[in-house]
């Protein structure tokens, strides 16, 4: 993404283009003896305290980069939670020209790792939020901290992710004369499946449920295989099963809400709007954010999720009391 400055008067040439550098990071958090703590990183090159973050690799999703950069800088494996405010600030690009760094942030829980320091970081400090507020060197970093504190007060830091996945791109129906349920992914779809695996990994998915159709199974199988997870297939989530009765597909969502663990469900374009409609009544009722979250669900249902797209619903609670507090759309 670039924005062009107008020509300098009388210069006879265009001014240098200012670029946008996409980046992502996390605020790892924990509770020790009832006290909320966050992890700050120290960069000796700048002698500053900030959040673990870094630039996106080409074609990489921001959520994937956030988890990867946190691991690379702190040695900690994290599961992304609710998104936090992003930050934008001026920097110089690799050529020394003007640029804007745009950083997306998430709250994150530590799920593993040895804490081995890498990538220009010489110290990771777990501190309470008041100490963090005072130690952070940049005022812009306090915005994410305050948002995390608000999320904690609203009991949203302990949310769990429910990911709805539309299968990746498959061989066209017109080019397939056998059982449609066995229609495979094409080359683009296989690449999307690899990207979907990275997204599911960033959110720490531990349960994977899929339509029994080959194109859905192949979309989430790479992740399940890499993590040693059982891939549960359900005919009720297929187009054919859904056409017979939508009750079975709806039941799969209710079961995941009852279990309340990080989960991914892969299905088809005609099926997903009904599943999204089940989640809409559970959207958080706060006037401003609840409307925004509800609109994202309505838009995803009405416009149809793109092939290979992942809809991340951050859920608090379980069963009938489960409520959706945030929604993200991730393209692959």
Automatic annotation (TrEMBL):
SMART domains reported for this sequence: PGAM
The keyword Lipoprotein is assigned to this record: no
UniProt keyword Hydrolase present: yes
InterPro entries hit by this protein: His_Pase_superF_clade-1, His_PPase_superfam, NUDIX_hydrolase-like_dom_sf, NUDIX_hydrolase_CS, NUDIX_hydrolase_dom, Nudix_hydrolase_domain
Keyword terms, alphabetized: Hydrolase
Gene3D superfamilies, per the entry: Nucleoside Triphosphate Pyrophosphohydrolase (3.90.79.10), Phosphoglycerate mutase-like (3.40.50.1240)
Record PROSITE patterns: NUDIX, NUDIX_BOX
Domain Nudix hydrolase positions: 19-149
GO molecular function, one term: hydrolase activity
Name of this chain's protein: NUDIX hydrolase
Source organism phylogeny: Bacteria, Bacillati, Actinomycetota, Actinomycetes, Micrococcales
């Amino acid at each position: 993404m670039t924005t062009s400055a107008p020509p300098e008067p009388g210069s006879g040439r265009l001014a240098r283009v200012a670029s946008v550098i996409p980046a992502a990071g996390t605020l790892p958090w924990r509770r020790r003896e009832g006290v909320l703590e966050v992890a700050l990183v120290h960069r000796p090159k700048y002698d500053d305290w900030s959040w673990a973050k870094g630039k996106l690799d080409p074609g990489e999703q921001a959520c994937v980069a956030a988890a990867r950069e946190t691991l690379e800088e702190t040695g900690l494996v994290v599961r992304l939670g609710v998104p936090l405010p992003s930050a934008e600030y001026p920097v110089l690009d690799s050529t020394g020209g003007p640029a804007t760094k745009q950083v997306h942030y998430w709250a994150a829980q530590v799920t593993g790792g040895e804490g081995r320091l890498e990538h220009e970081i010489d110290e990771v400090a777990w501190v309470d939020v008041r100490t963090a507020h005072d130690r952070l060197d940049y005022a812009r970093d306090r915005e994410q901290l305050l948002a995390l504190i608000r999320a904690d007060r609203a009991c949203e830091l302990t949310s769990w992710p429910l990911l709805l996945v539309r299968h990746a791109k498959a061989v066209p129906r017109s080019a397939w004369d056998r059982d449609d349920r066995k229609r495979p992914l094409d080359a683009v779809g296989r690449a999307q499946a690899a990207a979907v695996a990275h997204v599911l990994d960033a959110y720490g998915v531990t349960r994977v449920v899929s339509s029994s159709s080959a194109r859905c199974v192949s979309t989430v199988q790479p992740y399940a295989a890499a993590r040693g997870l059982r891939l549960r297939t359900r005919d009720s989530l297929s187009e054919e099963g859904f056409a017979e009765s939508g009750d079975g597909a709806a039941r799969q969502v209710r079961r995941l809400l009852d279990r309340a663990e990080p989960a991914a469900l892969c299905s088809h374009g005609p099926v997903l709007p009904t599943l999204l409609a089940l989640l809409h009544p559970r959207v958080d009722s706060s006037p401003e954010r609840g409307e925004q979250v509800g609109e994202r669900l309505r838009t995803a249902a009405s416009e149809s999720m793109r092939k290979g797209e992942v809809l991340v619903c951050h859920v608090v609670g379980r069963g009938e009391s489960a409520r959706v507090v945030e929604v993200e759309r991730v393209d692959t």
